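Following the same procedure, sequence and fold were stored together, as reproduced here:

>
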Amino acid sequence: MQPAKLGVAEAMPLGTFGAVAESLMHIVRWIVGAALFLALLFLSLQNSDLVTLKFYQWWSWQAPLIFVVLIAFAVGVAAGLAAGVMRTTRLKRELNRMRRAERASATPATPRDKANRPIDNA
């Protein structure tokens, strides 16, 4: 019989593989963050022209284009986070309600309950 060939994942203990994967993900996060930062930096340098935002005839505002784009992006991120927080809160409340109902229905009779029960002598 030939010995089985082990791949990298099988040869390493699980803890070691997890640490390597976590380290690689950390590096990838930094690379992606740096690339995103550089892209936004170049975008801001190329789009520094003034734009005018008008709300009908009542109100107008002038600002650099990149400022307007970043504000729109920030508002979108905030709206997404708010929606996520509301959903998470609703799910946590539902989970707690279900856990309370399960505890209430699965509560066994304790020996003290049996001792306090009246005895029928009939």
